[in-house]
Design a protein that fits this description.
By secondary structure, the protein is α+β, with helices and mostly antiparallel strands. The chain has helices at about 25, 65-80, 95-100, 110-125, 170-180, 195-205, 215-225, 230-240, 255-260, and strands at about 1-5, 20, 45, 50-55, 90-95, 125-130, 140, 145-155, 160-170, 180-185, 210-215, 250-255, 280-285.
């Protein structure tokens, strides 16, 4: 289905401002990290926050690439708020603009993938006790309530796409309007692999204006939402930490906790033996503040949802 926009259809695109998303959507994982069809994700439950995600097996749960469309829609909504324009949960946009923002090649198959994405976002059901907009509720919700693909018929009877209208689900819509915790994404986010996308979001959400923070490796694995074993997760983090600028704007270091506790040792010698895998810490820091970077033992430990000093809109 090709796309051709007519003047009789008013859209909210193109996106003029920067790409943004609600901080809650960055801290916690609600999306599959693979393109393989999954009818559910592993339940996240740390004793305080619980997240359960399910979908019909024929559709599968929304994945990390589907999330890009929600990020785009959230950015359009925030852009309208910033310009003091009327807002609604229904957003109309052109696929061409969405592909432009996410750096996706414009091709016929891209339009088909967007329609598949819409189907997954609508059919996925989320159950969580996370409160947004100062309110909590029991029950399930979907990322979008409804969508419409506007088209006209060409000379040969083929469908020619004009635009898409999406009714954003209440969870994200309420978070944007009431919580006002929108954070800007680096444009390089869309070029990252799924694991790197999640690591970037977690770094972005917890660093804010502070220079650094650290998180237990098992806690981080759960926040990322990966199903890989902890030893493989650690191996992936080790490889990423050795790459130059693996994450846009942030650096990352794995730390043996025994060395952290003995950081006052001038030589920083490694104690004998091997540290338990689950005791390792992952230290995130801002690349633009290397001169002010604290030592690992000085950086705050993130265990829950400790919100840093957030940027202004």
């Amino acid at each position: 289905m090709t796309e051709q926009l007519h003047l009789d259809l008013k859209t909210d695109s193109p996106l003029i401002g920067s790409v943004k998303n609600d901080r809650t959507m960055m801290v916690w994982n609600f999306f599959g990290l693979t393109r393989e069809r999954q009818d559910r994700l592993p339940i996240y439950d740390d004793g305080t926050i619980r997240i359960e995600v399910k979908a019909p097996v024929e559709e599968g749960v929304a994945n990390i690439w589907d999330k890009e469309l929600l990020i785009y829609l959230a950015s359009i909504l925030q852009d309208r708020i910033n310009r003091s324009e009327p807002v609604s949960s229904e957003i109309t946009f052109t696929v061409h603009d969405f592909l432009r923002v996410t750096g996706t090649k414009v091709a016929g198959s891209a339009y088909d993938r967007v329609e598949e994405c819409l189907r997954r976002l609508k059919s996925t059901t989320i159950y969580t006790n996370i409160e947004v907009g100062g309110e909590g509720e029991d029950g399930g919700f979907s990322w979008i309530n409804d969508y419409k693909i506007h088209y006209r018929r060409g000379k040969n009877g083929e469908k020619i796409m004009k635009a898409i209208s999406v009714d954003l689900g209440r969870f994200l819509y309420r978070a944007i309007l009431k919580d006002r915790k929108m954070l800007t994404y680096d444009p390089g986010y869309f070029e990252l692999r799924p694991l790197e996308k999640r690591l970037y979001e977690i770094a972005r959400a917890h660093c804010g204006k502070q220079n650094a923070f650290k998180m237990n490796i098992e806690k981080l694995r759960q926040r990322v939402g990966t199903t890989m074993e902890l030893k493989h997760f650690k191996a992936e983090l080790t490889k990423l930490s050795q790459k130059k600028k693996a994450l846009p704007a942030y650096g990352m270091v794995l730390s043996d906790p025994r060395i952290v506790r003995s950081i006052g040792n001038i030589r920083g010698t490694k104690p004998p033996g091997r540290a338990p895998l689950k005791s390792y810490l992952v230290f995130f820091f801002r690349l633009d503040r290397m001169a002010q970077m604290p030592t690992i033992d000085q950086a705050p430990l993130v265990d829950g949802d400790e919100a840093p000093d957030l940027e202004k809109f």
